[in-house]
């Protein structure tokens, strides 16, 4: 293989280490990632704004500064992608909405600025569904993002472009965000690894915004990364959490917390609350449990508190706020498809309104307290993410049954947004199913502010299972 054939395969940690040592140049690393993007993106439609020219210019400038004695940043020469719902100066923050396709950002969002300060290079911007409010990725501006595993699986959403891109080899770090599962759905769909950070971990703000977001949107939405291997979260997230005064509620804690004494207790559950648990998902959970036990964790089967109530109250509250604040924009600017999906959301999850909504926003603290007490005893929890293998494209357009499979069954996803706890997604099995092979991800929930513990546990599972990208690339190439 030539250098260009191999460099795109490197993770963020290894790319940065080799580039900083002078073994490779930033220009070579970025050039290899762009070549890979040119080769595979036409079939995937994951990257919808190609920034190759400015990326190569920036890579050469980084190499020149390095040669003149500048210290390389911790992500020196690492190719990254940014989701199109976050501001990047001079580029459209369209959020998949036709009316916003020319809505140019006046400045960088904090995470974009922090990544570039650390030496990362943005090679493209990735696709999202309209309003970033589906677990599938399609919109009237750019069309559908496809899963590199095949047409039988949705690419997930709303960070579907990010998940498909990073697993196909387009960049080592893919930015995404998550208000009800938008980092974890694409990770599960594509066999990637992610951690949804806890509330306040990553500074968030779009300079282009004209009004502040609703309180629940602020409380439940977080920014993060989708990667191919757990180690790259340890490499990339310390940069993501760097402080920025434009987010006044950012929590300035270090990435690594204090070591825990003795074997770490881990709660384990297969509870799916009325939804059928597929044998392949059950087997993936068993693999995760066994991997952590063998790695020295102390795993105990026990059901966490109030999950179903917390999830449904949280999602109905979020939809109540969404209906009030975003509803007019969806009605005015959304496609017929997304309008129909939201109508079904509101039927399946009757929204809280008025005083009832205010009471539920207050009750969020009660749920968070119960989970805080539980994670004091169990700093980590192994849970299902979805009870069934990942769904097909457009499943959420298929009425009540489709919305129930996509979102109704995702109780473990949006509950963690409501209480603000970190939650990771990692593949624990490759299922050979009638429509084709697909990865099966499980979820690991963590104690507040301890994303590092979640990533360590995912690394232990990955050590047992292997990286899904290696299997995927054999199928693609």
Automatic annotation (TrEMBL):
Gene3D superfamilies membership: Amidase signature (AS) domain (3.90.1300.10)
Pfam family, one: Amidase
Domain Amidase: 30-454
InterPro entries per the UniProt record, alphabetical: Amidase, Amidase_dom, AS_sf
Family the entry assigns: Belongs to the amidase family.
Protein name (Swiss-Prot/TrEMBL): Amidase family protein
Species of provenance: Seohaeicola nanhaiensis
